[in-house]
Amino acid sequence: MIILNKIISFYYREYKLNLSGFQDILTNIIFFFVSIFIFIFSIGPDKEKISVLGVGIVWTLLLLSSTLSLRKFYQDDFDNGNLLIMHLNGFSFGFIAILKTFSHFLFVQVPFLISIPIACVLLNISNDKLIYLFFSFVVGSFILSCLGSISSSMNLMNQRNFLLGSVIVMIFSVPIIIFSIGIINMEENFNSLISILFGILLIVFAINPWASGLCLKLSIENN
Amino acid sequence: MILVKDLSIERSDKKIFENINLSLGSGKIILLKGKNGSGKTTLLKAILNLIEPSSGAIYWKGKLLKKHLYDFFNHVTFIADKTSSLSKLSVHENINIWKKIFSSKISNSQIENILQTLKLDTFVNQKVNSLSFGETKKLELLRLIIENKKIWILDEPLSNLDDETIDVIGQTFEDHRSKEGSIIYSSHQESEINVSEEVIL
Q1: Is the ipTM of this complex over 0.85?
Q2: Contact state of A89 with B103 under an 8 Å Cβ cutoff
């Protein structure tokens, strides 16, 4: 019961923090839509071509937009000592990583989920593909949050190179994009491809608390 | 309660300190004194098991601390030299978050009294990033009362505070000591706070 109260208060804090920094979430969404417009203008008025490239564009931009927020994944809480307070309040570093990953998914990725239908209209993506895109993004974005947790905790130890985290996420997100795009383009293989994505999610979810927790511990030790 | 025995710490082949011994029992206040870089913060971090010592050990209630870490954490409040309050939120919102996180039973009237004593009552609805460093430091010290734990570990709690606030903190320390609480804090400045033991680093 005590641990449940602590988890609830953790998310209350995250909610308040994200609400006060709502402009950051909004900036991410604006970046996403402005980039879509740039793609549309650069491809030209050919509806068919936009429709074919649409899913790839959405996924690439979702990836880029979510890496924009990685800088703040742990950095603020590390700088003001809140990571340490959470640890002293009874959370292991690994458990903090799990809680922060869910928080990132909830406050950064879910707003993108809501934006996907509008993006589909803009990019002339058919309604029957929308549901597959939505499913693949739910699973894929949670994988990205796990990868984001690992890379940003590594960044805390390497304060000089903030781009490293984004590069790591982008490299490891290649298989996620391959299978996610596969789900949309090969609808008959939906079950097998979504199972592979779930498999990747389970592996990354299992590695995340271990890897991120270790990086958090080392960065606090060396701070 | 806490026993530090022959503790030595090295970092990058450089000795920070060696063979430190101290014992923090109920109703005791220990001051760690030393210049900048003498290892005061490192010793506090080692007590919190955040740094692995090169040699020596730390005991909690007679048992090795690292094997009873979360029981130890249940009895400790740590305040670092940087402020943990969330700068984008107001003083009131920060207090509410702390009350929830630490499941504090402290009443609102008690909080108001402390805010008045620390002269923070006029800033309650202001965002923390509009407060001065001294004011945020005073707000940080409010966490000691909200957490209501037996052991206080404080890193430079007196820096950037005026004499009047230091007197209030000295009185708070005395109250805590009279309730069988224990305090270990670091400082590089002289103060009138009545301590049980000084450890020079």
Answers
A1: yes
A2: no
